């Protein structure tokens, strides 16, 4: 008797399963079919599937240069994830015996596994899941208990079709929670550099102004990973107009020591609207430098970094 796969992020047992690569989008699944879609430019995947009378086993080894999903479980489909639907009576007619949508994902902020779906919204309560992110690869494993996904009275032999959707996110915003911020100077008090990445427009970073330090002044963000950055978004402090950055330079670095200029002598209006600086560089650090402001120091309420 063939052993069943082990859901523990090791990949054990999947050599006995049906392998589906992204070069052939359709494969036999012991009486059903599995479709693997590839919507993202930087995404490739290999999927495996197997079934027995107790579980439907699925595994996906996905390569994606960035893993990002900080959505709540119910919205996990909006980021990197595996989504799948079960239509047990498809041979009779699509949806004739009911169907359900399910998903698993790894939260990129908390590194916790998210599960959704199942009959009656049970969120696959009896179905083991393991997800491991290593380098540019994410390995998803799950053993779906048939009773979690089939209506009462139905068994695995009634299932004739299942479908995968592999979702890879193209672009996004680097989570502020994984970044760290340092600055050329900070006004003594409650205005540290970390205020620029705390998600609150009501807190802010101030460069030192008492006693005053001459401009330029800067803030550097360690992105907590490597990203192909295409935009920096700067939100000024809304209530104080004389500290807003008017001209600026943006630098990038991969070692936090040697910085390359990517946006030079840019100008921003003296208003409270969010400002942007656009470029395209693969980097681990971004430095926002204030050349001139409407006063003697620089001020940033929020700083965000977008990537492709």
TrEMBL record:
Top-level taxon of the source organism: Bacteria
Any one GO MF term held by the record is:
hydrolase activity, hydrolyzing O-glycosyl compounds
The F5/8 type C domain extends over: 162-308
Ranges annotated as biased composition (Polar residues): 178-194
Q: Where is this region: Disordered?
A: 178-197
Q: Which GO terms describe its biological process?
A: carbohydrate catabolic process
Name this protein carries in UniProt: F5/8 type C domain-containing protein
Protein species of origin: Paenibacillus beijingensis
């Amino acid at each position: 008797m063939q052993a069943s796969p082990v859901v523990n992020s090791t990949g054990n047992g999947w050599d006995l399963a049906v392998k589906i690569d992204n070069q052939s989008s359709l494969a036999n699944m012991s009486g059903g079919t599995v479709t693997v879609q590839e919507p993202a430019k930087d995404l490739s995947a290999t999927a495996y599937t197997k079934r027995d009378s107790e579980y439907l086993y699925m595994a996906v080894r996905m390569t994606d240069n960035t893993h990002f999903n900080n959505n709540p479980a119910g919205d996990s489909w909006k980021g990197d994830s595996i989504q799948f639907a079960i239509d047990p009576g498809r041979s009779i007619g699509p949806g004739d015996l009911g169907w359900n949508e399910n998903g698993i994902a790894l939260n990129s902020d908390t590194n916790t596994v998210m599960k959704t779906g199942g009959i009656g919204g049970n969120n696959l309560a009896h179905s083991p899941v393991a997800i491991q992110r290593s380098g540019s690869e994410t390995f998803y494993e799950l053993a779906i208990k048939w009773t979690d996904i089939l209506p009462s009275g139905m068994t695995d032999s009634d299932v004739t079709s299942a479908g995968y959707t592999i979702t890879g996110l193209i672009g996004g915003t680097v989570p502020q929670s994984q970044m760290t911020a340092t600055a050329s100077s900070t006004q003594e008090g409650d205005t540290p550099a970390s205020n620029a990445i705390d998600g609150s427009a009501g807190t802010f970073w101030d460069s030192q102004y008492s006693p005053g330090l001459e401009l330029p002044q800067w803030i550097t963000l360690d992105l907590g990973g490597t990203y192909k950055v295409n935009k920096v978004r700067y939100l000024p402090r809304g209530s104080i107009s004389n500290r807003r950055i008017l001209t600026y330079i943006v630098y990038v670095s991969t070692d936090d020591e040697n910085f390359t200029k990517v946006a030079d002598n840019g100008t921003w209006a003296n208003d409270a609207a969010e400002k942007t600086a656009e470029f395209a560089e693969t980097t681990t650090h971004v430095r926002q430098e204030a050349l001139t402001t409407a006063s003697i120091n620089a001020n940033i309420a929020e700083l965000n970094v977008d990537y492709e």
